[in-house]
Amino acid sequence: MIQNPILKVLSVMHGCRVRFLLMGGQACVLYGGSEFSRDTDLVVLPDSENLDRLQSALSELCAARIAVPDLSLDLLNKGHAVHFRCEHPEASGMRIDVMSVLRNAAPFEELWQRRTTVELGDAATVDAVSLPDLIAIKKTQRDKDWSHIRRLVEAHYMENRADASEKNVRFWLSESRTPEMLRVLTNSHPDTARAFYAGRPLLKLLPECTDDTLAAALVEEEQRDRAADRAYWQPLLAELERIRHERNA
């Protein structure tokens, strides 16, 4: 369930006409892959007018920046995240993390076209990144993100397994993190699985391999994504360190 302080943040963002999509832990809550998250992670359209509207929303929320870098189009377009902490009484302590460019993610306009709009009650809605986009974004070096990915795919499978459409099966084959699910899917949909061999080579191991062998292949696949995420962030972290040094000089 989306908590009231987060509803306040989303309400203010909508009221200020900020063009944004919910991602991160709160999006995982919406898709059934997490039970709680206190942070509000947003991907925002990177243009000057939208940034002005975002600044207005942050001011209304009494949100202060809590780390480098500053909020600027240049830094957002480079892939930096900007972090804020709300002091508004209805959202006290709520953290807001803002990004515009993410590894593994399409440009904002493409994310927007694929978005999911969720009804929150009392006529309130929120636009979130699509489930496939959320999973792509979650392929980071952080342990908790991989736990979220597994739960997100499993939740989607449990909710939709009676509707084993081609689209759903392709999604499950592409993103499942468990040997058991992959074995069921490849046994039930061998032709679709074979079509994925080039994009996900570990599927070639099925059905002959043991679960231990498949689990090891899943770990190796995950480690490649973790390494790619570390490499992506290395120059950005170096730039943050330079910004901190210049600010403290």
Q: Can you put this structure into words, describing what you see?
A:
With 249 residues, this protein is α+β, with helices and mostly antiparallel strands. The chain folds into 2 domains: 4-130, Beta Polymerase, domain 2 (2-Layer Sandwich); 143-232, no CATH class. The protein contains 11 helices and 7 strands. The strands form 2 sheets. It has a 5-stranded mixed beta sheet with strand order 1-2-5-4-3. Strand 6 (116-121) and strand 7 form a beta hairpin. It is globular. The N and C termini lie far apart (45 Å).
Write the layout of secondary structure elements.
Blueprint: H1 4-15, E1 20-23, H2 24-30, E2 39-44, H3 48-60, E3 63-65, H4 73-78, E4 82-86, E5 95-99, H5 108-113, E6 116-121, E7 124-128, H6 131-137, H7 143-160, H8 166-175, H9 179-188, H10 190-195, H11 211-248
Parallel strand pairs: 2-5
Antiparallel strand pairs: 1-2, 3-4, 4-5, 6-7
